[in-house]
Amino acid sequence: MADSRTSTGRRSDADVLVSPGALARMTAPVRSRMILGAAMSAASSVCALVPFVAVAEVVRLLLDSDPGTTVWIWVVVGVVAMVARSLLYGGALSLCHFADVDFVHLLRRRVVRHLRLLPLGWFDESGSGEVKKAVTDDVTRIHVIVAHLAGDLTSAVLVPLVSIGYLLTRNVPMTLLLLAYIVVVFAMAAPSMQRGYQAYMDEWNRAQGAVSTATVELVDGVEVVKTYGTSSAVFRRFDDAVSRLTHVAYLWTAAMGRPAAVINILFFPATMIAVVLGLGLLAVGLGWIDAVGVIPFLLVGVSLPSGYLQVAQLANGMRTAALGATHIDRLLSLPGLPDPDDPAVPADSAVRFDHVDFAYTDGVPVLTNISFELAPGTVTALVGPSGSGKTTIARLIPRFWDVSGGMITIGGVDVRQIPTPELLSRIAIVFQDAVVLTDTVRENVRLGRPGASDADVEQACRDAQIHQRIADLPNGYDTVLGSAEGHLSGGELQRVTIARAFLQDAPIILLDEATAHADPHSEVQIQQALNRLGAGRSVLVIAHRLSTIVHADQILVLDDGQIIERGHHDDLIAADGRYARMWAAQDSAAARAGAAR
Ligand SMILES: Nc1ncnc2c1ncn2[C@@H]1O[C@H](COP(=O)(O)OP(=O)(O)OP(=O)(O)O)[C@@H](O)[C@H]1O
Fold this sequence. Notes:
- The chain is α/β, with parallel strands linked by helices.
- The chain folds into three domains: 18-31 and 96-332, ABC transporter transmembrane region fold (Up-down Bundle); 338-426 and 507-597, 3-Layer(aba) Sandwich (Rossmann fold), CATH 3.40.50; 435-505, Rossmann fold (3-Layer(aba) Sandwich), CATH 3.40.50.300.
- 62% of the residues lie in helices and 10% in strands.
- The chain has helices at 20-27, 31-63, 70-117, 120-170, 172-220, 222-228, 233-266, 269-285, 295-299, 306-332, 390-396, 420-425, 441-446, 454-463, 467-471, 490-504, 520-534, 569-575, 578-596; strands at residues 351-361, 364-374, 379-383, 405-410, 413-414, 427-430, 508-512, 538-542, 554-559, 562-567.
- The chain is elongated and about 120 Å long.
- The chain binds adenosine-5'-triphosphate.
- Residues 124, 360, 366, 384, 386-392 line the site of adenosine-5'-triphosphate.
- Adenosine-5'-triphosphate binds at residues 124, 360, 366, 384, 386-392.
- The chain crosses the membrane at residues 35-59, 71-99, 142-168, 174-191, 261-282, 288-309.
């Protein structure tokens, strides 16, 4: 059997065992409206049948020698049923669709809230494809059930049952003859349809999952695709996934096509009219029914099999919805970072690492025995070779991951005991790559303090030395970042995120290589903004350019996850150790670059 993992090693739909209760749990908040919608839809389906019955009865009575006033009663019944049907149908449709809108909103919000609790490691492992799948694809799969299942399934099951009941009251042998025809057609075609369906359903889901993952990968890696064109592995994986999906679709259609065509032809309304007439002639010949008695069968019996096809489609929808619900259920049951069992609020903003060990993967230590203090109003710089653990240290403070050993405290309180909103409100982070949303500049800055006034947002931008640049944009602060008119350089975007940190006014600042992508002019501006931002706060700086941290109160030199030197710039230079060598190497590199210019 083909491997059911996708090219990125993630699990595909076919690996998931559908959990029977998941769909019921997921739809619980709107269940009462779904039931009411189903009841209204059932009543509407019965009403939809009544006009046909009324016409059949009117025709039968008119052909009688003395129709009497009963004819008019049937006319009124038919008209009232038509009106009632429209009202009930419209009501059921609105009810289910409004329930569906609420359902989608509630479920997406629940999923996104839960995603916020998951450690960053989960996102690294699962990728954006998994998030997109849960929030859009899986929710959409279930939404079809809320919007349509209750109403459509009830009517698909109920209409044939009521029709058969009515026809039995008209003539039992003729009804049995018609049912026998329908059963024989099913018996001929349904088993091979079922076999074809089961054989390719899983294959189809797997191929679809692979296309979804490959598409996300393609978009994420669009720069590689542009550079290496269609020869890149990313593009090849996408191409293979699409070809596989097409192939499965072809095989599936071929397997299902013949039996589906047989059923469609034999249940086609024109075919059914001919069948009812033929069976009617037979029954009249055998003396089981008179000619007038065949009329109800022509009007009501012809559409008897249509419900089957609808039920088959809905069963498919049910299965994919159950699969979507199982995915979401699994995601919602993933454990988030544990909540504090004894919540406490820190007294001040002194950050302390106390013999901290950390590993992303069990058995592969990344940090070992890290201890240092980040006192309020001081700057601590982390330096060291690539991969030595600088970013990891910074990310443990806001609990992007939890330590494996030792403890991190803020104001004497273990970060694991500080309620998450409280913890995050105390820490402002300026990442290496400026993280901005596709939203207006104003809202991007306001993320630092939701509810901040426009004046405060502008003041923060002045402090970050980006106000004038924003004011010069076509729509000023209302320009959407990422849009054609809202294109800012890396250094400018970095200053937008610094403005966000100014607005947040947090006592602890984490700066991860904030000047990394800036040109020399931007770098000076960013540096000035950062110096002002850091004044009076606990600042942790990750720096590659040692010239930016010569005035730091404390420099920690990391190597392979351990602190190998610590002290002021001058002390470390005097010690003539690793830091001194790094300084000399950067100095001569800068001199070489200067000479080359
Ligand atoms: N999400 C992750 N999952 C597993 N390993 C990781 C993860 N992030 C980083 N690592 C590993 O942890 C080690 C430390 O990485 P870290 O990013 O903290 O180093 P760094 O000193 O900041 O590097 P750089 O200067 O290149 O940014 C590296 O070996 C890295 O491969």
